[in-house]
Amino acid sequence: MSLSALNSYLPKPCAPPRPGGRPTRTKVFAQPPTLAILSDPHVLRLAETLEDSIAASSSSPPPPLQKLRDISSQSLLTTPWPSRKDEPFRFTDTSFIRNSEVHPVTLAPTQNLDVLSGLADSISPNIAIIDGYLVESLSNLSELPDGVFVGRLSDLNSKGLMEKVSKYVSNFQGDLFWSLNGVGAPDVVLVYVPEGCKVEKPLGLRFVSMNRSYKGSKSLPISNPRVLVLVEKGGDIGIVEEYVGGDGDDRCYWTNSVMEVVVGDGAKVSHSYIQTQSLGAAHVKWTSVSQGSKSVYELTEVSTGGKLSRHNVHVKQEGPDTVTELSSFHLSIGDQLQDLHSKLVLDHPRGFSRQLHKVIVAHSLGQAVFDGNVQVNRDAQQTDAGQLSRSLLLEPRATVNVKPNLQIIADDVKCSHGAAISDLEEDQLFYFEARGIDRSTARKALIFSFAAEVIEHFPDVTLQKKVENLIRTLLTPALPSGV
Amino acid sequence: MAMALFSPTFSFRISTSAPQRRRRRCFVQSSQATVAIEAPSSSTTDLLLQVKDLSAVIAESKQTILKGVNLTVRHGEVHAVMGKNGSGKSTFAKVLAGHPDYEVTGGSIMYKGLDLLEMEPEERAIAGLFMSFQSPVEIPGVSNIDFLNMAYNARRRKLGLPELGPIEFYGYVAPKLELVNMKTDFLNRNVNEGFSGGEKKRNEILQLAVLGAEFAILDEIDSGLDVDALQDVAKAVNGVLTSKNSVLMITHYLRLLEFIKPTYIHIMENGRIVKTGDISIAETLEREGYKAIS
Fold first, then answer.
1. CA distance A416 to chain B (A)
2. Looking at the whole model, is its pTM more than 0.80?
3. How distant is the Cα of A402 from the closest Cα of chain B, in angstroms?
4. What is the ipTM of this complex?
């Protein structure tokens, strides 16, 4: 039964489905109508709106994409909107998006995209994804080695590659937002790196939201960008994912993004992720990674924008001797919530992982959440896993909720975790003073250096400098006076 | 009140084993001399530091550490303080520097005619008091050159002198690295991050050479140093010394005192200075231990 047929069993505030205007879709499954009682009507309505907008625009989708849509629809039937009683959302209030009138974005090519031509600057090769749609005219893919494919799944001609992709798409089940993306993504952007290929220059992915509503209006445009990075055995690529806000710092929109990364045996993916969206926006992102044996995955994340920003990271080890490094820095300078939920699942021996999470909350209404889970299962012997979370609270009533959690079943492992929530260290402040530097200058320098520890992990130096300047600008007016 | 003499200049000299009279040293000015106005000298301005009956407790626990310390240091003198662990040597140094962990409960400290206890730590530093820490703290995210530049400019600002931008400052700092036998890439590393014990101590002396000081307090500058590193550090310290500035060294061993010749040696015991003398005290200590002294 399709979602719309199921919906007909529920009281409907919206118009009934349009007759005959839609291409035939594979039926998801046949279920008795009583299942409708377990569904969340709000979720179903949203899912249907997304399905309609997709169906209206595209032609017949490639098989993996259709499969993704089917599986996602199915799961949405039984997934309610998360409440504060659900553990993954205990500290995260999503009422901002739940109570808005969410409507999907359809990219009209006639929109004045010239205003974005300034985007095609910095990193090359790069692609621009506007409101979830890949826009070739603003992308520059001239410098990629042979065999590398970067583009829409629907534009992929190779059957062999399409079959490979089929295996990976929707292998993983995330939460409601993951499934909403599965239903609403107009296409999947595929980044494919063949065996043994090293991509010298990092690939930039620029995500921009053009469709935005004004603060105060209840309408919230949603975009669902989806990317699949598939790196074969021995491949090596750097990805720089940037979500930019554009002008007008309080415009509202919802970016519901998913990136799946498959790192083949012995391959390396270095992933930089920077989120500087508007302070009125909602940013929900999934990063689901699967690592083959002896592979390396490094994630460096800086998140400063968004009224509600939630990053879910899931890393699954598929073979032994993997290296996983996760470094993240979240900054809350206004009425913002920055949330990182990460999960590292280790099922094979000799995995090495390090996670460093730093947060600065510099506003009394600012909040941050960190839930770092590491599962060292029975076969993950000789694992070396370390996790450190440090939060700096600079204003009274600034809030941070930190939940580092290690679940260890194997018995020959080395695991550590630490969490500290504090103000600046007195010893470090005194060192500055003892050299003649006054307290407030010392505080500024130390607050900046707190963030710098993560920023230094970015592999590209120009990117580092750019982010350092951004953080410096954000931190300067936000500093509490009189310290 | 004599104006603070800000002199980032130094003379480079090799210490020989022949005894030297510290007071009458002539020094060679390098081309980067900056000289401030000096008050005409008289016997009272010869006095750099005067500590009278200083008592102090640990701020948190109120445990008494210093129980009436008396010390007088004149310009151009080198003092060494030795004593058993727990006698209060480091605490004394930290109290002079203004560390918030300690609270002064009695006595006075006059520094160049100023009441040091009324001054904030950064004011004391700008007035020419330099303390080299026993275990310097790491500051990830702040590079050595940025830190030095900040400290240097803070001094210049206070003295009404023009500040130096990063490039000019680099030109000023780079030659000083030779003093402490370190390479220029050192400047880009973060302050004390991943430094060995010897590198941390040499970093302290580099800061001393860059910022200059009238009164340098060296808290166990020799601990954790191998023989070569110790010589480098001692050379650097001697290089910074002039007839105007003074040093207070805290140490356990004779070794350091063979390189930096002290004018006076004090033994501290139980929060007080119990004995003062010359190098022969250190020699006795080395041979026979503390029971021979007390």
1. 20
2. no
3. 23
4. 0.81
